[in-house]
Amino acid sequence: MATSQSATNRFSDKLMELLDRVEYRRVETGEDMEDVARIRYKAYKAGAVMHLGEESPLLIDEVDFDSHAYVFGIYYDERLISTVRLHHVTPEHRVNSSGKIFPDELNAFLDAGMTLIDPVRLAADPEIWNEMPAIPYLTLRLATMATDYFQADRCLQMVKPAHSAFYKRVFDADFVASPKSNQGKFIIDLMLMATRVKEVLPKLYVRFPFFKSEAFERRMMFDRSADMSPLTVRPTARLAHFGTSRIQIGAESLAR
């Protein structure tokens, strides 16, 4: 047990170091969206997960621009390495991606009055995936931030069955629905899992402090009010975990 905890601590320290070189950007401009779409195309082609036409390499759809959808680019040393789209799903606003394959399960959550975060379109540059196996952690940190910001009841995981063990191990995700083939774009089976975030997140932050964030980072990422235009934001996990003095540290020093 001690050895396992020591390994977890070393891994967490390494992720914290990587975060020092990461920037997050909410994508809403055409140029940035095209860069994100190219990452999607390269990742889906390399993983053979989707029907792709060579004549249409830019994978953008109308849902990317939904009022409750948030597309992010993750930059490492100013290079775009991954992307994810987060849906804030509510009983009043049910636009999401997982519900297209698992409509009964999604509606059951929503009909019970729950709110959900649905992270989809997670894609990483295959050219650097092997060099940086921590990419899923750096990317999915955004999902934990969204569940905190929106005070969601569940964070969904629509994943390949082979990836289910990762989500169970890291996020204590519960099984929701068996693998199902999608008759649309995807050519792989997908299953549905969900994390009870209000119960799991406090324990997750203790085990993996790099998932932590300060409230002002979450606000800059998800607030779409007139005075909070899209920004490139530096992670605040180190500040949130170690409680560094905030003297001369403000939101303006984290956004560029």
Question: What would you say this structure looks like, in words?
Answer:
It holds the Pfam family FeeM. Residues 35-194 form the N-acyl amino acid synthase FeeM catalytic core domain. InterPro entries: Acyl_CoA_acyltransferase, FeeM_cat. This is N-acyl amino acid synthase FeeM catalytic core domain-containing protein. The chain is an alpha+beta fold. The protein has one domain (2-254): Aminopeptidase (3-Layer(aba) Sandwich), CATH 3.40.630. It contains ten helices and eight strands. It has an eight-stranded mixed beta sheet, sandwiched between helices. A hairpin with a 7-residue loop joins strand 6 (174-181) and strand 7. Helix 5 (135-150) crosses helix 8 (215-222). The N and C termini lie far apart (43 Å).
Biggest sheet details? 8 strands, mixed
Helix content, binned percent: 25-40%
Whole-number average pLDDT? 86
Number of alpha- plus pi-helical segments:
10
InterPro entries: Acyl_CoA_acyltransferase (IPR016181), FeeM_cat (IPR054597)
Pfam families: FeeM (PF21926)
Organism: Rhizobium subbaraonis
Protein name: N-acyl amino acid synthase FeeM catalytic core domain-containing protein
Question: How do you describe this structure in short?
Answer:
This is N-acyl amino acid synthase FeeM catalytic core domain-containing protein. The protein is an alpha+beta fold and 256 residues long. It is built from 10 helices and 8 strands.
